[in-house]
């Protein structure tokens, strides 16, 4: 049969990314408490397409995933990217893996145990000349209490659930759990799946005693990341889903590999 993808395209426009997006696939990630954790991931895979080709071979991306079935993780990430480049005769390859990660959390007073879900992701690329890039990210729900509301109110203060997204480039292996913990300790309070009444009292009062703006949260996370020489680069963003406004409050900070802020 005639291979349409390999036909020439006369428009002379290179495509930086062409591939498949939203593949649901099981992967294995490292779990400090239990060794490994099997999760269902969403994977995007792309390769560059030179201007002379009409299309890329979409089926080959899925074939490569099947070759690494049960072995898709941080250690094999760049091997998969190289395989994409080789099989598609590409100069660059890119892959994003997003997955839920579960950690057992213990309620602060009652000791009740429950599983807490965090959204995590790996993202990386292998470019011409084998220059590569790889980062790990986590999305962590936290609680914030508004300092201004506490200051001006005679009773109470408004609070909200917030989402903090941290992305890091690093020199050596680290545990996802440690990065999540760093974020949780940088906010007014933590979020739990299961709390008894004694726990609700504790977390509510603790957060009220530790009010923070969205700007405070990103600065706190950045301050802690700065203390760890393993992290070469990071970005931190926080979004507060305001309880008394019809909009969110947002802040973002990024540090480049040279140690300065952008």
Task: Furnish the topology, listing elements before pairings.
Blueprint: E1 15-31, E2 35-49, H1 58-67, H2 77-88, E3 93-106, E4 113-126, E5 132-145, H3 147-152, E6 159-170, H4 176-184, E7 189-190, H5 197-208, H6 214-226, E8 231-241, E9 248-255
Antiparallel strand pairs: 1-2, 2-3, 3-4, 4-5, 5-6, 5-7, 6-8, 8-9
Description:
- It contains 6 helices and 9 strands, in the order ββααβββαβαβααββ.
- With 262 residues, it is α+β, with helices and mostly antiparallel strands.
- The chain folds into 2 domains: 127 residues, Urate Oxidase; 132 residues, Urate Oxidase.
- The relative contact order is 0.12.
How do you describe this structure in short?
This protein is an alpha+beta fold. The protein is built from 6 helices and 9 strands; from the N terminus they run E-E-H-H-E-E-E-H-E-H-E-H-H-E-E.
Give the averaged pLDDT, no decimals: 91
Oligomeric organization of the protein chains: single chain
User: In which range does the helix fraction lie?
Assistant: 10-25%
CATH-defined superfamily of the largest domain? Urate Oxidase
* Architecture per CATH nomenclature, i.e. the level-2 architecture of the largest domain: Roll
Quote the beta fraction: 35-45%
- Got a strand count? 9
Rg over CA atoms, rounded to whole Å, is: 22 Å
Which series of helices and strands comes N to C?
EEHHEEEHEHEHHEE
